[in-house]
């Protein structure tokens, strides 16, 4: 399904727990380690520079940030940017709250249709990425792997990197969407997928 132009996203609020989020008929969440490019990707999908704050310091997303999608569906579906995980310079007491926050959200958010697990395409999946993928699969949470920073991988190495990344994530190469927020690679494809998930009342699981 192709998206018709940018996702019309509007920031609603930042919430410390899933209980503090407003209700939603359907929702897609972005998860990934700090500095994987979540905010940049959301901005690219919306074709806005600052809908999601981009910082040179990883770990700035510390709450559940929810955005409303302007669409024909009423009430409007939503998108959530989850805190990035794995950034060592964040205080340990703060790191300790993020794991339970993310787990509670993923397990308890009834409107969640799919979680996009972002993996840095330049460096490949880390142990934290693999652990996240194992966890969502174990808990039967619908997910889609999105490899970011396509433009950072040399063209001569892309085919091998795509195969290696998929293998390390435990999926087929066709199950990974490669994107570049900077160059616009596959942004429209991902928009279409997101619109599809948000418009399905009972979508099939991605895996």
Give a short summary of the structure.
The chain has helices spanning 38-46, 92-108, 127-138, 158-169, 187-199; strands at 9-15, 27-32, 64-69, 78-81, 112-120, 143-148, 176-178.
Q: How would you describe the overall organization of this protein?
A:
With 207 residues, the protein is of the alpha/beta class. The protein has one domain (9-199): Rossmann fold (3-Layer(aba) Sandwich). It has five helices and seven strands. The chain has helices at 38-46, 92-108, 127-138, 158-169, 187-199; strands spanning 9-15, 27-32, 64-69, 78-81, 112-120, 143-148, 176-178. Strands 1-3-4-2-5-6-7 form a seven-stranded mixed β-sheet, with helices on both faces. The radius of gyration is 16 Å and the shape is globular.
Query: Sheet with the most strands?
Result: 7 strands, mixed
Name of the CATH first level: Alpha Beta
- Fraction of helical residues: 25-40%
Strand order across the biggest sheet? 1-3-4-2-5-6-7
The value of Rg in angstroms is: 16 Å
């Amino acid at each position: 399904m192709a998206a018709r132009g940018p996702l019309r996203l509007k920031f609603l609020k930042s919430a410390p727990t899933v209980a503090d989020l407003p209700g939603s008929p359907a929702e897609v969440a972005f998860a990934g380690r700090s500095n994987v490019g979540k905010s940049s990707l959301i901005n690219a999908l919306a074709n806005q520079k600052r809908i999601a704050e981009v910082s040179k310091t990883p770990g700035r997303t510390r709450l559940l940030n929810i955005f409303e999608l302007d669409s024909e569906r009423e009430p409007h579906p939503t998108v959530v940017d989850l805190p990035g995980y794995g950034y060592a310079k964040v205080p340990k007491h703060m790191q300790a709250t993020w794991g339970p926050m993310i787990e509670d959200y993923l397990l308890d958010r009834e409107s969640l249709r799919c979680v996009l697990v972002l993996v840095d395409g330049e460096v490949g999946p880390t142990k934290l990425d693999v652990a996240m993928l194992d966890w969502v699969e174990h808990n039967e949470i619908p997910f889609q792997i999105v490899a970011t920073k396509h433009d950072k991988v040399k063209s001569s190495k892309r085919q091998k990197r795509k195969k290696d990344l998929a293998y390390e994530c435990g999926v087929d190469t066709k199950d990974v969407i490669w994107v570049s927020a900077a160059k616009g690679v596959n942004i429209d494809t991902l928009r279409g997928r997101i619109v599809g998930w948000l418009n399905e009342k009972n979508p099939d699981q991605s895996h």
